[in-house]
Specification:
Blueprint lengths: L1 E8 L6 E6 L2 E5 L8 H14 L6 E5 L5 E6 L4 H8 L1
Parallel strand pairs: 1-3
Antiparallel strand pairs: 1-5, 2-3, 4-5
């Protein structure tokens, strides 16, 4: 199981990792922060990146904020860091 801390920038032109911010990663999301759309896009992005079903990705903390901790089941931490780097 892997965990990643992200700082979300909603309403970006496209969804993707935009670099590091200290211990966190900056995540641009093309979805607006309304009605959970940004959270859905965050889960979709990490599921696609890790190659796992969406049901294996969950936002552990920060569901209503910009700083989030995302947990991905079915992938080791080293593999996730390799995919991000």
């Amino acid at each position: 199981m892997a965990r990643i801390t992200v700082k979300v920038h909603a309403r970006a032109r496209r969804t993707g990792i935009a670099g590091r911010l200290g211990e966190a990663w900056k995540l641009d999301l093309a979805a607006p922060p309304v009605d959970g759309k940004a959270n859905e896009e965050c889960v979709r992005f990490f599921a696609e990146l890790a190659g796992v079903p969406r049901s294996r990705v969950r936002i552990v903390t920060g569901a209503t904020g910009r700083m989030k901790v995302v947990e991905i089941a079915g992938i080791p931490q080293q593999d996730l860091e390799r995919l991000l780097g």
